[in-house]
Amino acid sequence: MTRKLDGSKLVIATHNAGKLREISALLAPFGVDCVSAGELGLPEPEETGTTFVENALLKAHAAAKAAGLPALADDSGLSVTALGGRPGVYTADWTERQWFEAEPGKDYKGRDWYLAMGKVEGLLCEKGPDVDRSCRFSCTLAIAWPEGDEAVYEGRVDGTFSWPPRGTMGFGYDPVFVPQGRNQTFAELGLEEKKSMSHRADAFAKLVADQFPDTP
Ligand SMILES: O=P(O)(O)OP(=O)(O)OP(=O)(O)OC[C@H]1O[C@@H](n2cnc3c(O)ncnc32)[C@H](O)[C@@H]1O
Ligand SMILES: [Mg+2]
């Protein structure tokens, strides 16, 4: 049995504004008292794990320990089938890594998502016009308590990598991700639609079933 949230404040342990917006919207109906890592001035831990689960747990435990409160972290990414699952767990620093290899010493702090998406497109194009464009967004949500307890929930959504980018809503790779069964990208569909079908929503549904089982 996993430990349950008991009404104390919950730290949303992310430094990504897009994720914070989505997690806040998903949590809203459950009356959880939330505070973000940014509001608490928590440092951004180095993500040294090799899986989404490892990194989500690492971020949740770091925040829970620093804040003395339960913390919810999210590790997520886009895995492209034809690229052997890349960028996957390295989605956030894909641009930094690619450019670092090209030009060591350059400052990559301002992540440029357009470049990162273009890099994926470039690698797909190298494989020819009939390349398999299927891909998947994965999301692992982890809750950690200051005493060391933890709970993990995994979600995913399958789709297609679409080029050029379309839409202005959402964040990160949303403009190039078309979920299965739809024609629009997540960035065109917007928060409400995305909330009903995303990798984050899938993981969150498992969190709700476990943490808030009595909610109708
Ligand atoms: O670690 P935190 O502070 O939560 O923020 P981050 O941006 O570094 O997040 P990750 O380490 O989990 O990296 C995941 C990256 O995958 C991308 N990503 C994850 N979920 C996404 C979504 O719903 N829509 C678009 N891109 C997403 C986005 O580029 C993220 O930066
Ligand atoms: Mg990160």
TrEMBL record:
Binding-site residues, Mg(2+): 46, 75
Swiss-Prot/TrEMBL keywords: Hydrolase, Magnesium, Metal-binding, Nucleotide metabolism, Nucleotide-binding
InterPro entries the record matches: dITP/XTP_pyrophosphatase, ITPase-like_fam, RdgB/HAM1
Short name of any one Pfam family annotated for the protein: Ham1p_like
Active site: 75
Molecular functions (GO terms): dITP diphosphatase activity; ITP diphosphatase activity; metal ion binding; nucleotide binding; ribonucleoside triphosphate phosphatase activity; XTP diphosphatase activity
Cofactor binding remark: Binds 1 Mg(2+) ion per subunit.
Biological process according to GO: nucleotide metabolic process; purine nucleoside triphosphate catabolic process
The protein's enzyme class: hydrolase
Catalytic reaction equation(s): XTP + H2O = XMP + diphosphate + H(+); dITP + H2O = dIMP + diphosphate + H(+); ITP + H2O = IMP + diphosphate + H(+)
EC code: 3.6.1.66
GO CC annotation: cytosol
Cofactor or coenzyme needed: Mg(2+)
Assembly, per entry: Homodimer.
Job of this protein: Pyrophosphatase that catalyzes the hydrolysis of nucleoside triphosphates to their monophosphate derivatives, with a high preference for the non-canonical purine nucleotides XTP (xanthosine triphosphate), dITP (deoxyinosine triphosphate) and ITP. Seems to function as a house-cleaning enzyme that removes non-canonical purine nucleotides from the nucleotide pool, thus preventing their incorporation into DNA/RNA and avoiding chromosomal lesions.
Family according to the record: Belongs to the HAM1 NTPase family.
UniProt protein name: dITP/XTP pyrophosphatase
Organism whose genome encodes this protein: Novosphingobium guangzhouense
